[in-house]
Amino acid sequence: MDWLNEDTWIISDTHLFHNNIIEYTNRPLNHDELIIYAWNTMVKPEDNLLHLGDVILAPTRIILDIAPLLTGNKYLIKGNHDSRRKMRNHLNFNILDRKILNWKNGQTYRYVPCEKYGVIFSHEPLPTQFLRRKHVVNIHGHIHNNLTLDNMHINMSVEVRNYQPCKFGEVLKEIDETYGLQKLNTKS
């Protein structure tokens, strides 16, 4: 996973062209334009981007129109609204399978060891007791503008990230500064 480093962009729950999401999460009417503009302003074609699921809810014809607008080398942990075929064939996402750690109920996630603690990327938040036992922080989406469960969870949903991607290095700083997890006793 050499593509995943502090310069990798992370985003979740873009829900492009999902009309019901506007009411559900109180998004602005122009959320699609905000997200696509921020994505393409920040993410260069050679950059890597990890999407934590729920990319777009639209017919194939709209997806084909949007595909060239989303820059970067795109990687996806599928969310509950993602179709593997559409994400890979039409939006050119690299679909990440469950290879590093497995979780019951079909949960897909990635584990990344850091100097001070481990990180698990997932679409849905993982149980706190699992994270404590493994000494890891969970970077996830799915809960939109709802509060995170505790200091072991980092919500990357666009509603709490100003409708734009964030660099993994900035998220690691947030973990250190905001949540104080530098004191978490972990194995390197």
In short:
The protein has 188 residues and is α/β, with parallel strands linked by helices. The protein is built from six helices and nine strands.
Distance between the termini: 17 Å
CATH topology: Purple Acid Phosphatase, chain A, domain 2
Task: Please give the domain count.
Answer: 1
Poorly predicted spans: 99-109, 181-188
User: So, CATH architecture?
Assistant: 4-Layer Sandwich
Q: Return the structural class.
A: alpha/beta
The biggest beta sheet reads: 5 strands, mixed
Instruction: Indicate the percent of residues in helices.
Output: 25-40%
Number of helices: 6
Radius of gyration (CA) equals: 16 Å
Strand order of the largest sheet: 4-3-2-1-9
General form? globular
Q: What is the topological layout?
A:
Layout: E1 9-11, H1 20-25, H2 31-42, E2 48-51, H3 60-66, E3 73-76, H4 84-90, E4 93-95, E5 109-113, E6 118-122, H5 128-134, E7 136-140, E8 153-155, E9 166-167, H6 168-179
Parallel strand pairs: 1-2, 2-3, 3-4, 6-7, 7-8
Antiparallel strand pairs: 1-9, 5-6
